[in-house]
Amino acid sequence: MVGDDGPDLSCFDFGDSDEGVADTAEETRDQTVKRHRQEEQVLRTAAKERRNTIPKGDRAGRAAEESALESELQHMRERHARQLAAHGVDHLVGAAAQLSVSNQPAKQSKGSKRRQKKEESDRVRDRRIAEEKAAAGPSARDIEMQKLVVKLMPLGLQVQEIPADGHCLYRSLAHQMQLDGQSGISFQHCRRDASAYIRANPSDFLPYLAADAGDASEQSLDKYCGTIEASSEWGGQLEITALAHFHKRCIAVHSADAPVLLTGEDYDANGPRLQLAYHRHYYELGEHYNSLVPAGPPEPQS
């Protein structure tokens, strides 16, 4: 019977001693096995009721309850084995069989089965993708990167990866200026600086906007500058030109398939060149800029 304090276990012996071994002489082996099953079921039922009183969010409490149940079950199984052994040596096999059944892992939940199935599916997919890539040979990104590395090695430079979030040009230039001691500069500063220079020198940039967008009005230039300032729109050569003149620094852009593109060579005396890498195939989304640093362990990016 189950009362307010859980099931009544008084009819069963859960002790760790050998008491009860002698009593098995009054039972047949089948009766002993039946009693063992009943005792284990009662123990599990009591443990389940205790577990149900523990809040679901209390993982430590639930884990402790599971551990306590396993300990109690282990002691019970050892006692049961001794009691079965009292029926004779021939019945030790039966004891071992019962222990084997009792020690079977708990039945998996549907959620656990789904997770395992998904994990296996993901492993199969990843393995297939890896095999297909291996069969296809080097990717366009790999080929481009290999070429760029060959060009950078004699210069003692290597790629410092910059996030591909639309700000890569500005982040790369900010990183270069930080390396040069301008610790307070950020990609937002670079965006504002580029916009400010273009606004201050419209005649230098309107022809390029006309060629690109077919509109050489001051309104289009103002809109273009607003986009630079307040969006994650990708930057290119126009912005590099503006930033080179704004900061009066030479910017060197290295790529796999073209000579180094220098902007602002007249400013070489003002400090080291700001070194960038330009990639056509670095990401599937398209073009990307990275910063270049002296060869060695790459710097961590925050």
Automatic annotation (TrEMBL):
Domain of life: Eukaryota
Ranges of biased composition (kind: Acidic residues): 15-25
Renumbered residue ranges of the record's region Disordered: 1-74, 99-138
Basic and acidic residues bias spans: 26-65, 117-134
Gene Ontology molecular function, alphabetical: cysteine-type deubiquitinase activity
Domain OTU: 157-295
InterPro entries tied to this protein: OTU_dom, Papain-like_cys_pep_sf, Peptidase_C85-like
Protein name: OTU domain-containing protein
Pfam families: OTU
PROSITE patterns: OTU
GO biological process, one term: protein deubiquitination
Organism of this sequence: Coccolithus braarudii
